[in-house]
Design brief:
Elements: H1 19-26, E1 36-41, H2 51-56, E2 61-66, H3 69-77, E3 84-85, H4 89-97, E4 101-102, E5 104-105, H5 117-120, E6 126-128, E7 131-132, E8 135-147, E9 170-173, H6 179-186, H7 196-209, E10 213-217, H8 220-229, E11 234-238, H9 239-247, E12 252-254, E13 262-271, H10 277-287, H11 290-300, E14 303-304, H12 307-311, H13 315-320, H14 327-331, E15 335-336, H15 343-354
Parallel strand pairs: 1-2, 1-3, 9-10, 9-11, 13-15
Antiparallel strand pairs: 3-13, 4-13, 5-7, 6-7, 8-11, 8-12, 8-13, 8-14
Helix pairs in contact: 6-7, 7-15
Organism: Rhizobium calliandrae
Subcellular location: Periplasm
Pfam families: SBP_bac_8 (PF13416)
């Protein structure tokens, strides 16, 4: 999912002056209390995603980035305490089970009703009494991005990432909700609830792929560079990589596999011990404005969670990005990444397989 899966490419985080440095330069008392801390996917820190927040609170946010939301979960569980974090839907129940979250009051979310119902009504985000555990913000797809000049007329299937003739020229995503999910689909197993025997089948499928893969990574910048140079001919990526390479004129196609692309949704969660809840609501509201969602769609080719963001993007541009204006249409032909009951077992098994086990 990213995400990514961003759901999912590594870009340097913006290096704004810290509150302390700024206050010292102005001779003001340093205070971190009036600064929002936000923990997000790398690539999601762009200022154009929260312009009105910055206008109201110049230098009002301190952003830390992660490459994968499993890593984010581990860091938060270990004691890192941002006010807001940006995991994906399939992980929300896990964060909640650990007691890391506080409910978000939808009455304080100005554009709550502009969020597509399919995301607003996700079961694991419901906290009762008009409250939610996550405010959906972005959604997108995970699929195979391949060089059309180097891979001639491939079958539209995830099996391309298991094709021996491209050994050493394939990369895949180093995240439990991506590569193992696809291995499960190809093994004929439900990725979201499996028996120990089915888990074994998924492990076998991953072992079959391992010698063919040049990298397991969430660093989409390096994947894009390797696809552009021809070092890689195919990789599992998110929409943003297809958008970036097409802009550079690289002959690539983002596949629609017969088994289904993966579709993921991510959003904002408020940590239980968040110190700046008012700023957090301001930030979420800023991110849910039509202009913010439009910037997300146009920069990365990801879907925004709001109908107003889609209405702000020309129809031709949406067609060019292969984004239907209604995500429900996309979800009818894709596999939605929901909670995985065996997430921890799957994660351990994936680590073992990657290490040669």
């Amino acid at each position: 999912m990213k995400h990514d899966h961003q759901r999912r490419f590594v870009r340097p985080a913006s290096r704004a002056l810290t509150a302390v440095a700024l206050s010292l330069s102005l001779g003001l008392p340093a205070s971190a209390a009036d600064k929002l801390t936000y923990f997000t996917w790398s690539g999601y820190e762009l200022p154009e995603f929260h312009k009105t927040f910055t206008a109201a609170h110049p230098d009002g946010v301190d952003i830390s980035v992660f490459g994968d939301d499993d890593d984010a979960f581990t860091k938060v569980k270990a004691g890192f305490h941002p006010d807001l974090a940006h995991p994906c839907y399939d992980k929300v129940a896990r964060w909640n089970k650990e007691g890391l979250l506080q409910p978000i009051d939808t009455a304080k979310i100005k554009n709550w009703d502009k969020i597509f119902p399919v995301f607003r009504n996700l079961p694991d985000i419901q906290a009762g009494d008009r409250k939610v555990w996550m405010v959906p913000w972005d959604w997108g797809n995970t699929s195979v991005l391949y060089r059309t000049d180097l891979v001639k007329s491939p079958k539209q299937s995830w099996n391309l990432l298991w094709d021996k003739q491209y050994a050493g020229r394939i990369a895949t995503i180093d995240a439990v909700h991506d590569t193992p999910v696809v291995a499960a689909l190809l093994a004929g197993v439900s990725p979201f609830d499996m028996t120990p025997e089915q888990l074994g089948k998924v492990a076998d499928k991953l072992r079959e792929q391992r010698p063919l893969v040049s990298a397991y990574t969430t660093d989409m910048t390096s994947v894009e560079q390797s696809l552009a140079s021809g070092q890689l001919v195919a990789a599992m990526t998110w929409n943003a990589s297809a958008v970036a390479l097409k802009k550079q004129g690289v002959p690539v196609e983002f596949m629609k596999p017969k088994e289904g692309m993966l579709t993921w949704a991510c959003g904002f969660v408020m940590l239980k011990d968040a110190k700046n809840t008012d700023l957090a609501y301001d930030f979420i509201n800023s991110r849910l404005e039509a202009e913010s969602g439009k910037a997300l769609i146009e920069n990365y080719g990801y879907g925004a969670s709001t109908t107003s963001a889609f209405a702000a993007v020309p129809k031709e541009e949406l067609e060019n990005l292969q984004l239907p204006p209604d995500p429900e249409a996309m979800l009818k032909s894709t596999v939605f990444t929901g909670p995985m009951k065996q997430n921890d077992d799957l994660a351990k098994m994936f680590e073992k397989v990657k290490a040669g086990g």
